[in-house]
Design brief:
Blueprint (H helix, E strand, L loop, with lengths): L1 E4 L4 E2 L2 E2 L8 E8 L2 E7 L4 H7 L4 H8 L4 H16 L7 E3 L5 E3 L4 E7 L2 E7 L3 E7 L24 H22 L6 H4 E3 L8 E8 L2 E12 L2 E8 L2
Antiparallel strand pairs: 1-4, 2-3, 4-5, 5-9, 6-7, 8-9, 10-14, 11-12, 12-13, 13-14
Helix pairs in contact: 1-3
Length: about 230
Amino acid sequence: MFFLNKKGFSLLSGLKISSLFMSLHQTILHDSKTEILVWKISETLDQLLTEVKLNESSNARLGGMKSVAHQKGFLSVRKLLQERGYTDFDLYYDQFGKPHLYDGRHISISHSHDFSAIILSDKNCGIDLEMQREKIMTIAHKFADEESKFLHEQNQDDYIRQLTIIWGAKEAVFKIRNEVGISFKDHIHLNRFTLEGKVASAILKFASLEVNYNIFFEEVENFTLVYAFEKQ
């Protein structure tokens, strides 16, 4: 994998290239057919509104959002699309709310607080971006029961980071399947992983389905970025 961000320096993990005049924070070239883009939202709502053109459906969705933060997240995703030559008019959502591109490429979307992210791939994929917060410890029993066997509860920082990865991975898997009735706790399970490894695997067992997934994760400031692919 190769990593690009606005600071413009090289690391062992890949090459980072400057992006000084925009809020494109990081680009991850997972492989020749898959790219992840991360946007750091520094613009005002008015700035984003002037820089993004929306189709009729998206205008209606934006108008129904009461939170400025949600509006900015929605618009910043369209900024990321523009980075790769797409516009809001190239994007549509199916009856279950899953995003698609008219050219047939796969896309998944996430935004949280001051960051948004998309993944573009020739493979079916899901992405999630989550802030690392202590609050996740209080709800861990609702989504990470099986995974509690290998969590490092004695180290709070690592525990929060692990839980955030688990939640993000299950969210990413759910976005791939996008089926009503899937439970994070009962139907999606992660195998043991390490924070340093930045990879994991998961299995979805739901109804007659049994599907395996490859999971990848990165930390972006105090956020966790997770993306998933169905194993072929």
